[in-house]
Each structure stands twice: as C-alpha cells, then as structure tokens.
Specification:
With about 240 residues, the protein is mainly α. The protein is built from seven helices and no strands. It has a domain of about 150 residues: Ferritin, core subunit, four-helix bundle (Ferritin, Up-down Bundle).
C-alpha cells in the first residue's frame, strides 16, 4: 500500500487550486473606469493619458498600435500579479518561524521578494516603452491581478510556502501565454523580457517545491516530549551536579 507523503498532499492541494484558475487577461479593461480605485481624483492635475492605454504615436518602437496595446495590457496584468506575489512574500518573510524557517527560509524569502521587485521593474518598464501606463494603485492592482493574496492571518509555514508555490505556477503559466503571443505578433522585445522573467520564476518555484519535500535534517521537538528520546532523562535531576 502506497503511503501518501506530506509533499504529495501539498501538491494535490496546489493542483486542485490550479484547476480553478481561469488564466485570463483583462483585455477589456482599458481607460478610465470610475468603479476602479485610483481612477477618479479631486486633485487638479494636468491630464495626459488614460490608464491602460497606449500612445497613438509609436513611442519609438516600430510596432502597430494594436500590437502595442495588446502587449501592454497583458504586461500590465503580469506587473499587477507580480506585485501581489511581492506583498505575500513580504508577509511570509516577516512571519517566518521554526528551526528551518527563522534563518534559512527567512533569507530565502527575502531573495524571492528581491527578485520579484526586479521583475516588477522589468515588466513595468516594458509597459512604458510600449507607450502604456502601468497600473500602480494597490487595490486596482489586486483587482487586475490573475493571482489573489491569501487571507489575512498567521498560518503554518507549509501553508505559506504552498500558497507561494501556487502563485509561482500560475505566473509561469500566464507568462508562457504572453511569450507565445508576443512571438506571433513579432514583439520580440517583450518576448525577451518575459523569457528572462520566466526562467527566474521557474527557479523560485523549484526552490519552494524543494522546501516542501518530505526529507529533513530537523528532528523538531519530539526529543523533548518522547520518553525514549528525552535527552535529560526521566529521573530526578541532581541539583548538586556541577555539570547540570
């Protein structure tokens, strides 16, 4: 009889959530929408361009406006999703605990969030180069993102890492879609940017999956509560022993 390991249970949960993943871009959300946060203001500012639109002129990149708009909208969705991933990584970095997590995993999550900041900048810059306006309002970013932040509260480290892995797998899936589409539209600049991002996200996903593996060098607290493994022993401790 095959025993289901904790890693298999975790991956089954990730797979179940992935089956509910729509995996769509917000291609119909362009321009001002008064129901979206950050799309209305009482400030007196000089207006230049609506959100999630592209400049009519080619912005120095010789691609048709319809191509630039399609790529800019998909890239903006990626930028929003990466920002949500960053927020969740921040939370997990702050709440790391336990023998495996407090140092090593704490630093690993810091590396993940630093790499995510780098990717947000790469993708946001590409949106701007295509003549677009990247979404920056936090609430609107979450609305447009194809991944959603986990519910508030503290949970186990395995829950945290499993949720991060689910994000990474969804990011990879959506990045591949845009890479394929950018090749079809001969937008090789976008393809190059996203291929670099994809390789890094695959590395991050591999890191998270490896952490969820069952093998470990950590005994945990069992040796303190298990009678046979109690290092101090179960007898009366001699308080006069200088070595105690």
């Amino acid at each position: 009889m095959q025993i289901t390991t904790q890693t298999q249970k975790d991956m089954n949960m990730v797979s179940e959530n992935m089956t509910n993943f729509a995996g769509d871009f917000n291609m119909n959300k362009s321009g001002f929408n008064t129901s979206m946060p950050g799309h209305t203001s009482n400030h007196n500012m000089i207006f230049r361009q609506e959100p999630r639109t592209v400049k009519q002129a080619n912005a120095g990149i010789g691609l048709p406006i319809d191509v630039r708009k399609e790529m800019a909208l998909q890239l903006d969705d990626h930028q929003c999703a990466l920002t949500i991933a960053l927020h969740q990584y921040n939370k997990h970095h702050w709440l790391t605990e336990g023998a495996e997590a407090f140092l090593s995993l704490h630093h690993l999550l810091e590396e993940h969030r630093n790499k995510t900041v780098e990717h947000i900048d790469m993708v946001g810059e590409r949106v701007a180069r295509l003549g677009g306006v990247p979404t920056a309002h936090p609430v609107t970013q979450h609305e447009l993102s194809y991944i959603k932040h986990e519910v508030e509260g503290r949970y186990t480290m395995r829950d945290f890492i499993r949720n991060d892995l689910e994000h990474e797998l969804k990011l990879q899936e959506m990045l591949r879609k845009t890479i394929d589409r950018s090749h079809e539209l001969k937008d090789y600049g976008t393809a190059e940017v996203l291929q670099k991002v994809l390789v890094d996200r695959e590395d991050l996903g591999y890191h998270l999956y490896s952490i969820l593996e069952d093998d470990t060098l950590v005994r945990g607290m069992e040796h303190l509560i298990n009678q046979k493994g109690n290092i101090a022993g179960d007898g009366q401790v001699d308080t006069l022993n200088k070595l105690q």
